[in-house]
Specification:
- The chain is built from seven helices and nine strands.
- The protein has about 260 residues and is α/β, with parallel strands linked by helices.
- It has one domain: Rossmann fold, CATH 3.40.50.300.
- Strands 1, 2, 3, 4, 5, 6, 7, 8 and 9 form a nine-stranded mixed beta sheet that branches.
- Helix 2 packs across helix 3.
- The longest helix has 19 residues.
- The C terminus is likely disordered.
Amino acid sequence: MALINHRAREIHFKVVYYGPGLGGKTTNLKFLHDRLPPERRGRLISIATDHDRTLFFDFLPIDLGQIHGMLTRFHLYTVPGQHYYQRSRRAVLQGVDAIVFVADSHPARETQNRESLADLRTNLTSMGMSPEHIGRLPWVVQYNKRDLPVAVPLERMRAMLNPGGAPEFEAVASQGRGVNETLKSACKAVLARLVSDTSATPSATAAANATAPGASTRPHPAAAPAPATLARVPAVTPGMRSASPASPVAPAPGGATR
């Protein structure tokens, strides 16, 4: 659920990279973190387990526009893929705004791909999400390791993992191929849903215009004068939380325990 930081004039969103263990989730985040300008990204936090890692960092995109004159900040998480880290995966999913499902294209990982996708849906349901809510959750599928000579045909993977036709990308995360495109699609889907969710408010048109292609999020004194209050921002809607302006925004409940 989106979180509003009134003091920083930012709206925070959480994107979770989900998928089988060693499928490329960590590689995606490390590549993104390495390529983003240091002044626009936070520190990469790594929580090691016996066989996998949970990573987190946040960043300010430079080309996704503003919402009601507020900058957007995205928090990216991975989850440990092994089946015995069920609780950790469920904790990381709390407050999620978008899912990037990273599938492994190796034929030997087909079962793990299906099990991970089923596990994801089970965890979302256990968190109280209805099928309708899950269906509206921004969702992107990445087919990683497409450089493998024995990679599963794309049509087969699509039939197994993306029958609903969510945005999808072929990738070789170790080389950076498809990594940026995947993230950008997820971020744009999150913003589109936010605009849709606030469409009943009088300021919906302004929000749509603010997120139009070509809008800039680069901080500039003249870009968006900061009023004394955020009266232009609509009341917090279901799926949005308001951060106390007197305290820094935590990346998510539980912090580094995710």
